[in-house]
Amino acid sequence: MADTGDEDCQYRIKEGDYVVLKRGDIFKAVQIQPRKKVIFEKQWFFLDNAVGHLYSTTFDIGSGGALQPQKLKENESCSDAKEAGTDNRHIVDDGKSQKLTRDDIETLKEQGLKGQEIIQQLIENSSTFRDKTEYAQDKYIKKKKKKYENTVTVLRPTCRILAMMYHGREPGKICHLRYDTLAQMLTLANIHAGSKVLVFETCAGLVLGAVMERMGGFGSVIQMYPGGGPVRAGVESFGFPAHFHDTLHEFPICHVNALLAGTLDTTAKEPSADENQSGVVAEEEQNQREVEPQSMETSTADAVGDDQEKNEKEKRKEAKTQVKKLKLEEKRKKLAAVASLLEARNADGLVIASRFQPCSVLMGLLKFLAPSRPFVVYSQYKEPLIECYTKLREHGGTVNLKLTDSWLRHYQVLPNRTHPLLLMSGGGGYLLSGTTVATDHQKPAGAQRAEEPAPKRLKLTDTEA
């Protein structure tokens, strides 16, 4: 029984976990913290009562923002009589069929009625509900549930759920990357546990988190980042254990050319003593200019106070300098460690998903891959990938180049009314994939393609003779 409890514990919500809230087709990623107010879909509540329950549990939002697990209902239908009409053509939507006004509905809410009870009141006070067809009644009930039922579902964050969340709320942050395209990227790049993968992305950390999730905490992931530091907001939403982050490394993309040329300097530059002294003198002169002239007669107490203040300032400066030195040393060690990993040039895969022009980045990072290793590049538009495709064909060193686009269609699957949804995503972006091969550096890349096979030349010679 103890083993069963330990296995069941990983499926239960714990304090400090990162979770995804779901209501309808809307998602939101939050962290469970004690007495922290969460606002989701114009409602506020606390997630304290969700701790200890299983993931994917649906909760009712009670008074005071308290969550209560939703009880299973045997009968989902709100109408007991199930009377339905056969035709909707004579029903006119003039706004007069519903007897309850907005004030009446607000009064019902103040009385403590739940969403299901309010929906039942709306059905009983509707003069046209029983004349509608069965399909129209189900549609009406579904619409009212979405509006009046105060429920929220707590899900465990996964790659697919977070991709749907970003694509539904802020698609621009992830370069309009759809979850089916992300799945193809992970497959084409052959992401698996124990591999060494290079990732260059500007998708808020979603692609990086997806790669780490697929690897399961085994292997190494090297994030090539632009700018002053890596962006990992999406990685935090996954809620990975601590040992997952031990496999994550970072390397600035601006140092790639220096690393390839062998001129990368991993020593952190520390400010010299003369620079520190000049800085202190300049700061003291600035302070003297700001202080107004005072009387030459000062008391002994003021002098002692000034000396103490100067000593405290010097101590604070020394502490800041020491902290800065420690940060520079730590940064230097990390940069040197990642540089040693890249210098081996034996990476197992490359994933690029960025809003920047990918051609120069791709040509530089391909040199760190071992032969017979896959790579994949994502772009919202096909023109940048066409440029990459042409460049790779001219340069050589890659085979099996494919430029593809993904297509996805959602269907409503219901009895006697299954059809594609009216509103769908128009495009999922484009992917360029291929495999690296070892090249013969003694001959130019195009020499072998231009030269004809020897047997063919012999046959042509015999025919002409």
TrEMBL record:
GO terms for cellular component: nucleus; tRNA (m1A) methyltransferase complex. Keywords: Nucleus, tRNA processing. Residues 307-320, 449-465 have a biased composition (Basic and acidic residues). It comes from the Eukaryota. InterPro entries: TRM6. The keyword Nucleus applies. It is found in: Nucleus. PANTHER family: TRANSLATION INITIATION FACTOR EIF3-RELATED (PTHR12945), TRNA (ADENINE(58)-N(1))-METHYLTRANSFERASE NON-CATALYTIC SUBUNIT TRM6 (PTHR12945:SF0). Substrate-binding subunit of tRNA (adenine-N1-)-methyltransferase, which catalyzes the formation of N1-methyladenine at position 58 (m1A58) in initiator methionyl-tRNA. This is tRNA (adenine(58)-N(1))-methyltransferase non-catalytic subunit TRM6. It comes from Betta splendens.
